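To whoever picks this up:

The nightly regression suite flagged cyclin-dependent kinase as changed. Nothing in the input moved, so I suspect the structure step. Input below, exactly as stored in the fixture:
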Amino acid sequence: MQSSPCERIFSRFASDSCLLSISTSAYRKADPSASFAEAQSHAKRYESEAYSKAASKAEYDQLLQQVIDEAQAQHSAAPVIDSPELNPNYEEEQFQKDAITIGKYQHCHHHDDGLLSTIYRAKNDDGELVALKVTTPHLMGPPHDSKREVRLLKETASKHVIPLFEAFDLAGGRLILVFPYMQFNLNELLQEDILTPSQVKSHLRDMFTALEFVHSLGIIHRDVKPSNILLKSPAGPAYLSDFGIAWKDGDAGSEPSTQKITDVGTTSYRPPEILFGSKDYNTTLDLWAAGCVVAEVLDVYHSQLFDAGPLGSELALIQSIFTKLGTPDTTVWPESSRLPDWGKFEFHKYPAKPWEEVIKGASSQGRDLVSQLVRYESASRLTATRALEHPFLSL
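Regenerated output under the current build:
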């Protein structure tokens, strides 16, 4: 028995993996109040309608994208999810055991370990929870410098940069930085998948607002990533944190402007210019990383945009970038002709993938914002100010 046109279309489209899962997740992200069963039911209905109307895969994708865009527009002001509270016994239990004293702060408890620091949680004289970042400056090597971090944090004090309450020295050459304690970071909230569309946009606006101010001072953060965006609750506000490798021209601890260190940032968020040896990079380095953060927030599975592999290999990262954005040449990326390490290897010529394929389940406006930040030519990336004006982030 010969199949009907609709049946043939359905069969061809259904060969794409996880279509229903992606549609269901995208619907739930657009309407957080929907249950899984409700979201799946809506997704099935929308897909069925798309199958019946579409004459091609491209038309089918377009119809589903319209549904996602309309749903996100309709529910963009979804109710804020209640903020989780600390376990009622959590604080008391922690302050009764394994405590140490750090300067005037008693009952300090280990919270986390950084690459060159240790974080403790304590209470200040007012009973407010604070985070103490214990560093040893003389054991740090460039680009890490906690003394410079203190200087730059004092200069960048603003609404969405993490406040530095105080800094003090201790015996043994230790330098302690004291911040307000933040229970959450954006990476953790993405993994828990509990943010509403309005919260997502609010946190991204806070990130770009912080970058706008930091960049206006000539400071490059050099480590923008979800785990460095801290929040007291899922509702926000969000704060840009960890200025341990930040750079400013003329600062005593910063390299010369044309001899900046290229081994900065977290591998998957590094832009292509430093992967090919640029030492005169500028604030556009942060905007590439910010674009990667936006993509990670929008992706239905919250996957990192680019993959550096299990070992954090720069060659693996370059391949990941090329396979998604396409292998560039000097026409696509004029800046590459000036990069010290460009042309040393011959790369496979990958075609660029459409953003609809790269970031699944996202709105068209969200993808457009990413596409204007994650660009080879650094001068063509949106500034933080322009990003804040983008329709996706408009209030």
